[in-house]
Design the sequence.
C-alpha cells in the first residue's frame, strides 16, 4: 500500500473520501474485495488470526487505530477476534442480512471499509466478539514488546 499521508483526502468530519479507482490503485485486489466489496477471507489463512504480539491493529485502508492486542482472544473461528475496540467512535456498526443471516457488520468509521462482523458470543467483560478479516488490518507492534 502506498504512503497515505499525501494521497488521503478527508472531509470536514475527518472521513477519508476516495473514488473506487483510487481505492483500486492503493489496495491489493484481495484487500479491495474485502474492504470495499464486503468480501471475506478464508478462516485460518489470514496473517493475524494466530498472532499474539503486543501492539495496535489499524485499518489497512486508512491507518485508523481500531483494536489493541490486549483485547484480542482466540475464539477458535479462524479470524482475529477482539472483545472490544479502542473507541466506539472508530467503528461503525450496521445490520447485515446478506447470505440468509442476521449479523452486524463492522466498518471503519473513517473510511467506511468493511472489517468483519460483531457477534454476541465473546468473553467477559463485554460478551462481544469482533470477528475481523486479517486483510482488513495492519499491525503496529508495541515499541517495548517483549513477546
Sequence:
Amino acid at each position: 500500500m502506498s504512503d497515505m499521508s499525501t494521497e488521503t483526502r478527508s472531509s470536514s468530519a475527518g472521513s477519508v473520501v476516495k473514488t473506487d479507482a483510487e481505492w483500486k490503485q492503493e489496495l491489493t485486489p484481495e484487500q479491495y474485495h474485502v474492504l470495499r466489496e464486503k468480501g471475506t477471507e478464508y478462516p485460518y489463512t489470514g496473517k493475524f488470526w494466530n498472532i499474539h504480539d503486543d501492539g495496535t491493529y489499524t485499518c489497512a485502508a486508512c491507518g485508523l487505530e481500531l483494536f489493541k492486542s490486549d483485547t484480542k482472544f482466540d475464539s477458535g473461528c479462524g479470524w482475529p477476534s477482539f472483545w472490544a475496540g479502542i473507541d466506539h467512535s472508530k467503528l461503525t456498526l450496521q445490520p447485515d442480512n446478506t447470505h440468509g443471516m442476521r449479523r452486524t457488520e463492522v466498518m471503519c468509521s473513517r473510511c467506511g471499509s468493511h472489517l468483519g462482523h460483531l457477534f454476541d458470543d465473546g468473553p467477559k467483560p463485554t460478551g462481544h466478539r469482533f470477528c475481523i478479516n486479517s486483510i482488513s488490518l495492519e499491525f503496529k507492534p508495541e515499541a517495548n514488546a517483549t513477546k
In short: Residues 1-13 have pLDDT under 50 and may be disordered. Residues 20-26 form the longest helix (7 residues). Residues 16-141 form a domain with the Metal Binding Protein, Guanine Nucleotide Exchange Factor; Chain A fold (CATH 2.170.150.20). The radius of gyration is 15 Å.
